[in-house]
Amino acid sequence: MNLKKTLKYFDITRLYKYIKLKIHRHPATPENLALSIGLGAFIGVLPTFGFAIGLSILAAFFLKLPKIPCFLGTWVANPWTTPIFYTLSWKIGNFFFKLPIHDIAKEFQRKNIAGIFNDFHKLSLFIKNLIILYKPLLLGGIILAIPISIFLYYFSLISLKKLQKRKNDKLQKFLPF
What we know:
By secondary structure, this protein is mostly helical. It has one domain (about 30-155). It is about 75% helix and about 0% strand. The protein contains 8 helices and no strands. It is elongated and about 80 Å long. It starts with a helix and ends with a helix.
């Protein structure tokens, strides 16, 4: 297989068109599709460390929303945007918690975390400090995820309604009545 054929299969525009087609052909209402995309984006922005897709599909299942658009909404967090989201989440969350990150880092060094899994006390201290560090990250993630998910909800809703109207207009041209 030559390089040209290989690149044809990994073309990002084809992937975009395929995803767009899958969403537009989905039988759910535009409101449900947009809500599902917004929910996926909300969970995608949260600091879930690799569990966003599973959590979004689980949330969509319990809320009886379409799962594929929810899964696609988590793609708002990808390898290029995740460092930005996590940094902003930390800065926003630490604005409220005001954690002295340098003191915590010095404590990690002072307590000599090496051999952490051999000593229960070191492991419990490590977990305690991780929980302390995760709180501002989670709070900042929630605050950051709200406007992003609302924006994606309305953007998706407007796009899907326009597409639905265009589809209905085309259908009206071909119907005799």
